[in-house]
Amino acid sequence: MLLADLHIHSTWSDGLLPIPELIDTFGRSGHDVIAITDHVVNTDNMLGKVAHRFGLSVTRHNFDAYRSEIDREAKRAWDEYRMIVIAGCELTQNRVRRSSSAHALALGIDDFVSAEGSVEDMLVRAKDAGALVVACHPNEMSDWYSNTFYLWKRRDEVASLIDLWEVACRWDLFPPVGRAKLPFIGNSDFHKPQHLYAWKTLLPCEKRVETVMQTLRRGDGLALTRLNGAPALAGPRVLAIA
Which is it for strands 237-241 and 223-226: parallel, antiparallel or unpaired? Predict the structure, then answer.
């Protein structure tokens, strides 16, 4: 089983660590697969404009540089740690009401995907770009500012546009997602070093990019584990299997 964390932010958006430090942090802690998923924020409301004003979003203009750095560090990650790095982003629409807010990971992208328009438009663009789409923290989060309920409240309508749902994010579990029997994943939503010890996904596959992506798209046989506090990966427990 490969230890994976597929929801990680760097200084390209609102994370505290630059990508090279992320590679060393996750590589040294024994991760097999990670995804760099910096925010791509919409610009058609005030919250989105503020995020762009403070440089908290990857943009169409700097996406190529962002992608190039991920590619460069992915090669180093493999050479030094035998760790796979997947390029992605977190498509982000923040609204005043949490029932109107939606975040979705777009994994495996080569080109910029915008977060403009309706949530459904955003998801369609991600699918058209060939991305694997993950609904982020779709239910109640302990961090109030992370609550994004739009996708959960419309899960039947958007089902064809979502490949996986986070049933665990950072230190929170979402029992309603589990009870709905949706294909699930667990991630840390990493922004700072203490987030390393959080929910993860275990992947039953060979350590190759193509096989990892195929396994995620299939969405079965995945397991969850949580890393607890100490620097050593002292026997993570498997808590659920899809």
Answer: antiparallel
